[in-house]
Design a protein that fits this description.
Blueprint: E1 6-8, E2 13-14, E3 23-31, E4 34-38, H1 49-58, H2 66-74, H3 76-85, E5 95-101, E6 106-111, E7 117-121, E8 128-129, E9 133-135
Parallel strand pairs: 5-8
Antiparallel strand pairs: 1-2, 1-3, 3-4, 4-9, 5-6, 6-7
Length: 144
Amino acid sequence: MKTGAYIYTDGTRSEELDQSKTIAGILCNVTDTHEIAIMPIESEEELDFDEAQQFCHRTGGRCPTIDELTGIYLNKDKINVALKAANLPALKESWYWSSTEYDLNYAWILRMSDGLRGYLNKGYYNNIFVRPVLAFNDSTIGDC
């Protein structure tokens, strides 16, 4: 399947939107051998690193790695088309937390508007959001 395909909670996938099913995520091919599903929810509030991790856990997902965020950025147009077609919130043109730590006090972030990567103090939260993801071995999305 191609980036932008719909992943449903029953474990099925489709490049066409099936409004009778519940969307678990939008497919993103990070590499030729690594796929994730971008969940249909993201933080509305600005969060620090720990709050971002907790938000992802509460929603049933996990925070993406910096490499996964880079894959999302590189495919954001296709992902946003699928999200908008399903009447779901598009990716913000803001900074996003990753789960990748730089060291004990810093973690990597990525700006979705231009793909700029950097690391930031984990306690900082101004204009930083999170979009949870699911890996295909996560039980939430069935047998994908």
